[in-house]
Specification:
The protein folds into 2 domains: 3-64; 68-203, no CATH class. The chain has 8 helices and 9 strands. The protein has helices at residues 3-10, 29-42, 68-77, 89-96, 141-152, 160-173, 177-183, 189-197, and strands at residues 17-18, 46-49, 52-54, 57-59, 62-64, 85-87, 105-110, 117-122, 125-131. β4 and β5 (62-64) form a beta hairpin. The protein is elongated.
């Protein structure tokens, strides 16, 4: 199997491909980079950003560009198999329905971020990436995201509709008291305080 055949078999159309993740037999990183450059020059492959490539999807109007949100999700949240991050901050408040503010900055918490917090640009998407307080897994991701939500919410400004949305989120996510108590120590005391003041603590199964 040639390198080109391997790439087309390994990666789907419209999916971000990270240079750092590509491994082909025992070839070096510099050799792989040269092959990618050839594929870009031939038009087979597109370069989205430094170290990020994709196979373009052919549409009736031309080529569809790679969605920056897809790049962010694969880099910081999940590769489809492993979960290593979650949406946080105002982005999470909006997702749950606790704010109507639509942020132009996507906030994420991830095992793949080594700094405490930093702002980056991914295509036209601004991202604020934070290092996870503890290792995020598929088993604890919903609990950690819930605790992050408790840490940023303001219990004084929650009306009945927002309480309903919050309780719905808890039930849908399957967050329970045992798991919350297991991880709450990784978060500031504010998270527990907001949980009690909002009445959310009493909704946990």
């Amino acid at each position: 199997m040639t390198f080109n055949e391997y790439m087309k078999t390994q990666y789907g159309i419209g999916e971000p491909i990270y240079l750092s993740k590509i491994k082909f037999l025992n070839y070096s990183r510099s050799w792989i980079f040269k092959q990618l450059k050839k594929m870009v020059e031939s038009g087979e492959l597109r370069r989205f950003d430094t170290g990020i490539y994709y196979f373009p999807q052919k549409m009736s109007y031309g080529e569809a560009s790679l969605n920056p949100r897809t790049v962010v999700e694969k880099r910081f949240l999940s590769d489809g198999n492993e979960v290593y991050g979650y949406v946080a901050g105002i982005s999470l408040l909006n997702m749950v329905g606790l704010t109507t503010q639509v942020p132009n900055l996507l906030e994420v918490v991830s095992n793949n971020e080594t700094t405490r917090v930093r702002d980056i640009q991914v295509g036209n998407q601004r991202v604020r990436a934070r290092r996870s307080r503890t290792t995020v897994t598929s088993e604890n991701v919903k609990t950690l995201q819930f605790l992050d939500l408790m840490n940023v919410m303001d219990p004084k400004n929650i009306d009945e509709t927002e309480k309903y949305m919050l309780n719905k989120y808890i039930k849908t996510a399957g967050v329970n008291k045992e798991e919350v108590m297991k991880y709450v120590g990784f978060f500031p005391a504010k998270a527990m305080k907001n949980m009690i003041e909002s009445g959310t603590a009493y909704e946990l199964a």
